[in-house]
Amino acid sequence: MSMRLAAHRGFSEYYPENTLLAFHEALKLDIDMLEIDLHMTADGEIIMMHDHEVDRTTNGKGLIREKTLLEIRQLDAGAWMGEQFRGLKVPTFREFLELMKDHPDIEVNVELKDYPHHSGQFAYDSCDKILAMLEEYNMTDRIYINTWSGELGQYIYNKHGKRYRLHGYYPMFLNSGEFDRETYYEKLFCVCLFNRTQNPDGSVNRLPDPLMKPEDYQYIASLGLEPWACFTPTAERLKAAHDMGVVGFTVNDAKLAGEILNDLDIRKFK
């Protein structure tokens, strides 16, 4: 099976992540999918940013959920990566959805970043608003709903069944919150595997090799789920991932990954 290629937070290797510029530039590449991150503001608007706080990728400070959309829009979302990007704004989800109307063949991996164990009902309200907007734009057939919160994933499944393709994580301990671990993987469509171990105190270790063992990918496939991966691309790693059954690959530099996959005859340029 040909590997599907997703641009992580847009073309984030060279452009400020989760900005409209990064998405526009990613859409110039030969990709199959965009990966995005969504939060809700204090006044109920959905915006695009990875971290829970604005500190890393803007000139502001503080939690997104404690700021209004006006406060978010006044921030600079580009200068942190270079002076040439100064003046870029944090986009709204609606702006992104309007952009995607012109790209009907591109799928979207929609990551929900408001978690119930952080913000309680606020996270569920954020989730419901995002799903409603996806329905409004008739995006259901080309999205994956992704969250590190097993609790939120369970909420979506209990409310909507398998209407949405749910994306989760392996090993199990990477998923946060209170949820039914016995049935977690039964609810999913695809799983991204990360080579991590967990310490007795609950902290997580990132191992040098991003790939897990073949039996881990085989286990996910045996459950009827698609194994996905996310790491810095090299020919050796991408070939190994493909040989172990990885069918979805998310990466900051989708241009480089596409060239490697094309050379390996795993995913040919269109």
Short account of what is shown:
With 270 residues, this protein is α/β, with parallel strands linked by helices.
- Number of alpha- plus pi-helical segments: 9
Radius of gyration: 18 Å
**Structural class by secondary-structure content:** alpha/beta
Runs in which pLDDT lies below 50 for 5 or more consecutive residues are none
Order of helices and strands: EHEEHHEHHEHEEEEHEHEH
Q: Kindly state the number of beta strands.
A: 11
The percentage of residues in β strands lies in 15-25%
Taking the sheet with the most strands, its summary is: 8 strands, parallel, barrel
Mean pLDDT: 97
Oligomeric grouping of the chains: single chain
Globally, the shape reads: globular
Placed side by side, the strands forming the largest sheet appear as 1-2-4-5-6-7-10-11
> Terminal Cα separation, in Å?
15 Å
Helix % is 25-40%
In words, what does this structure look like?
With 270 residues, this protein is an alpha/beta fold. It has helices at 20-26, 69-73, 93-100, 116-119, 121-136, 150-160, 214-222, 235-243, 254-263; strands at residues 4-8, 33-40, 46-48, 107-112, 143-146, 165-170, 190-193, 196-198, 204-206, 226-230, 248-251. The chain has an eight-stranded parallel barrel, surrounded by four helices. Strands 8-9 form a two-stranded antiparallel ribbon. It is globular, with a radius of gyration of 18 Å.
